[in-house]
Automatic annotation (TrEMBL):
Family: Belongs to the GST superfamily. Tau family.
MF terms (GO), sorted A to Z: glutathione transferase activity
GO CC terms: cytoplasm
Domain GST N-terminal span(s) in chain numbering: 73-152
Protein name: glutathione transferase
Organism: Hordeum vulgare subsp. vulgare
Catalytic activity: RX + glutathione = an S-substituted glutathione + a halide anion + H(+)
Record-linked PANTHER family: GLUTATHIONE S-TRANSFERASE, GST, SUPERFAMILY, GST DOMAIN CONTAINING (PTHR11260), GLUTATHIONE TRANSFERASE (PTHR11260:SF478)
Domain GST C-terminal: 159-296
UniProt keyword annotations, A-Z: Signal, Transferase
Gene from which the chain derives: LOC123403215
Lineage summary: Eukaryota, Viridiplantae, Streptophyta, Embryophyta, Tracheophyta
Length: 297
């Protein structure tokens, strides 16, 4: 890895991202920067290639060098292209600019690797880091954020109160949005579907308020940059957009949820999201077919 030249850079051109400092501390030039990577496997620091300060996601280029030069950096993700839980992990890895191998799972015929990696729940996503599996999407997000601290944007805020709040909303999304959404979509009776619909709409309204509060007038839950809540909800973007076609319910309204509508457009327009978010029509067709067959989605 051609890092030696970079190591000789004058300190005035370097952005130092110490192991627990978020965001990176900038020293010198405002427009171009170099990053220091604190290796999770060894106590050594590497300065990575230059990134534009204007776009934290261009650190992806730098990560390619880590992948090439850090012999113990090996990430493999088991997921499905449409699952909101695997999608949030892919979003997080992309936003952090981490390279990883992706294995698409067939839930009707789960791979040996999945069954061995997640023997308890046998579900995706599973992230395998240097051969060690990590299960449960929220645990994976936190793991990635901790291990690759200083690489790309931090997902969880540095402040303990803000961190607790981000975790609160992530749990809310799982329990009060995703679970009722599912009930609305595959509920066995009309009563069950109707309950799911009411709960989902109530959750969307609550999340509109949460976005206003967390973003402090900026675009994302994380403020100017995408953070933990953004990627957690991000996994649901295509499902939310497909809700009208799948359940006959309009989830977002220009008058009732203008912030979430704006969030969705901005989030979906970012390159790290664009490359993984499923195409809504494809998702709708697939989900309808699976619902008709009553098989795992
Ligand atoms: N709480 C889990 C949920 C994961 C989950 O439900 N995954 C689904 C796909 S979206 C799955 O693997 N289902 C397979 C099964 O139920 O056997 C997480 O956050 O990772």
């Amino acid at each position: 890895m051609a890092l030696h030249g970079l190591l000789t850079l004058p300190i005035s051109q370097v952005v130092i991202s110490a192991a627990c400092t978020c965001p990176p501390v900038t020293v010198g030039q405002p427009s171009r920067a170099h990053f220091v990577y604190s290796s999770p496997s060894a106590n050594r620091k590497l300065i990575l290639s230059s990134c534009s300060n204007n776009n934290p996601y261009t650190v992806a280029g730098a990560m390619q060098e880590v992948a090439a030069g850090e012999e113990e950096h090996e990430l493999k993700l088991l997921g499905t292209w449409r699952g909101p839980f695997a999608l949030r992990v892919r979003l997080a890895l992309n936003f952090k600019g981490l390279s990883y191998e992706y294995q698409e799972e067939d839930l009707a015929n789960k791979s040996k690797l999945l069954l061995e990696s997640n023997p308890v729940n046998k579900k995706v996503p599973v992230l395998i880091h240097n051969g060690v599996p990590i299960c449960e999407s929220l645990a994976i997000l936190e793991y990635v954020d901790e291990v690759y601290r200083g690489i790309g944007p931090c997902l969880l805020p540095a402040d303990p109160y803000q961190r607790a709040r981000a975790r609160f909303w992530a749990a809310y999304i799982d329990n009060k949005l995703v679970a009722p959404w599912w009930k609305m979509f595959v509920g066995k009776t009309n009563k069950e579907k109707d309950e799911g619909r009411k709960q989902t709409l109530a959750a969307v309204e609550m999340l509109e308020g949460a976005l206003g509060e967390c973003s402090k007038g900026k675009t994302f839950f994380g403020g100017d940059n995408v953070g933990y809540i953004d990627v957690v909800l991000g996994g649901m973007v295509a499902w939310m957009l497909g809700t009208k076609a799948l359940c006959g319910v309009e989830l977002l309204h220009a008058t009732k949820t203008p912030l979430l509508l704006g969030w969705m457009e901005s989030f979906g327009g970012l390159e790290p999201a664009k490359v993984v978010l499923p195409e809504v029509d494809r998702l709708v067709e697939f989900a309808k077919m699976k619902r008709a067959q009553r098989t795992l989605i």
